[in-house]
Specification:
Keywords: Signal. With about 400 residues, the chain is an alpha+beta fold. It folds into 2 domains: about 5-25 and about 30-275, outer membrane lipoprotein receptor (LolB), chain A (Clam), CATH 2.50.20; about 295-410, no CATH class. About 20% of the residues lie in helices and about 30% in strands. The chain has helices spanning about 5-15, 45-55, 105-110, 175, 200-205, 210-215, 295, 350-360, 360-365, 380-385, and strands spanning about 60-70, 75-85, 90-100, 125-130, 130-135, 145, 185, 195-200, 230-235, 240-250, 265-275, 290-295, 300, 310, 320-325, 335-340, 370-375, 385-395, 405-410.
């Protein structure tokens, strides 16, 4: 997927080079520190130049929080990681903390609905470079390796949201800082600068996974209609490195319709960078531990077969995708039976009823878990000329089926 931000960052970074020395006309007191050269540039360029200079340091430690606010509590994602700008790779871990009173449908949407459990894991790890994404769910004892462009369904940004354009790790405010439009700048104690600025709403959408973007305001139709500006505050230290950024993303919330995020009243992101320089120790290209190739291990529920044992968290946040794993080890569930459902797609209610009848006795034949079922989507039904009912068991206590794609067989 081509991201509009990539073009913005390239244009800003290529337009202006940092000056090698301060203005020769400025007289400095003996022994005084010279000002950072980028601060002599027009204010409208300084944040973009600071992003470039931050990348030129070689690497940085990353911390970011994203907060969805509701009247009954918040959902907060904490992201920590290391960035190797020079090597175009990074590693990160994320954890969600969600208040008990946070709206249930919003919680399920934020974490991602999977094929055989209520939501995706509230924590996970990933390692990213220019061609490969390694993802490890908290519930998994292995990494999944995705190479190149990963689109199991046409037009779906399945896992590429974990890869950035302005930095190796995606979904951070670094992705939007190359195109900000500073409106106000002031000097900080110690010689740095702070900026109040904004960036186009269209770029804010790129901070989130593909499925979650569908719950926000509609994306602008073209670059000439970028949507409402999103306010952002940026801090740059005296060396010209970005150290902090915060953005009020509330304008992404679609207040004009009832959706999965109804009840969410605010959205904010806060970023901090530190530890500039080449990462020590260097980041590994391949993380340690067991690695499964996503190209062969990850399949659709339609493509799984009776006897397959499955994990439900692929990192791609899609309810139709599963990981095939050995039955000898721990797993979320197993396929017991599959049944053809001939004819054209009869509608969701009738498809569900036909799947219920087809899987009625599967629970008695399945061992080691609670029986559940799912059925082909209209798209799958049309593509294959018939539907398929998949009868499976859920073997982990934490793996509970989603409301819309599975129901008890009894």
């Amino acid at each position: 997927m081509t991201r509009p931000l990539a073009r913005t960052v390239s244009a800003v970074a290529g337009a202006v080079l940092l000056l090698g020395a301060c203005d020769p006309g400025a007289a400095d007191a003996p022994g005084a520190a010279r000002p950072t050269p980028l601060f002599s540039e027009p204010a409208s360029r300084q944040v973009g130049l600071a992003l470039r200079h931050t990348r030129e340091t070689g690497g940085a430690d990353l911390r970011q929080t994203v907060t969805f606010t509701s009247e009954k509590g918040d959902a907060v994602q904490n992201l920590t990681g290391r960035l190797d700008f020079a090597g175009s790779r990074g590693e990160a871990a994320h954890t969600w903390r969600i208040a008990p009173g946070f709206p249930e449908e919003a919680r399920r949407t934020i974490l991602g609905t999977l094929p055989g459990r209520g939501t995706g894991d509230a924590s996970g790890r990933y390692a990213v470079d220019t061609r490969t994404i390694h993802y490890r769910a908290a519930s998994a004892g292995y990494w999944l390796r995705y190479e190149g462009d990963v689109e199991p369904f046409p037009g779906t940004d399945s896992i590429d949201h974990l890869r950035g354009t302005a930095s190796p790790i995606g979904g951070t405010l670094l992705e939007v800082l190359g195109g900000v439009r500073p409106a106000e700048a002031r000097e900080l104690a110690g010689g740095g600068r702070s900026y109040r600025a904004d960036f186009p709403l269209a770029e804010a959408l790129e901070l989130f996974p593909y499925d979650l973007r569908q719950e926000f305001v509609p994306a602008p139709l073209n670059a000439g209609a970028p949507g409402a500006p999103v306010p952002v505050a940026v801090e740059v230290d005296r060396e010209g490195r970005i150290t902090r950024a915060s953005a009020d993303l509330t304008s992404l919330l679609d207040k004009g319709r009832d959706g999965a995020l109804t009840g969410v009243t605010g959205l904010r992101a806060e970023l901090a960078l530190s530890g500039f320089g080449a990462p020590e120790p260097p980041l590994d290209t391949v993380p340690g531990g067991r690695v499964l190739a996503g190209a062969s291990a990850v399949v659709t529920l339609y493509g799984a077969r009776p006897g397959d044992c499955l994990d439900f968290n692929t990192g791609m946040r899609h309810r139709r995708l599963v990981v095939r794993v050995p039955c000898a080890g721990p797993h979320d569930g197993a396929i017991v039976e599959q049944h053809s459902l001939p004819g054209t797609f009869p509608g969701t209610e009738e498809a569900a009823e036909r799947a219920r009848r087809a899987c009625a006795a599967a629970g008695e034949r399945g061992a080691g878990g609670t029986p559940w079922r799912t059925w082909s989507t209209e798209e799958e039904w049309t593509e294959h000329g018939e539907g398929r009912a998949t009868c499976y068991t859920v073997s982990r206590a934490a793996a509970t089926p989603p409301v819309r794609t599975a129901s008890a067989s009894s």
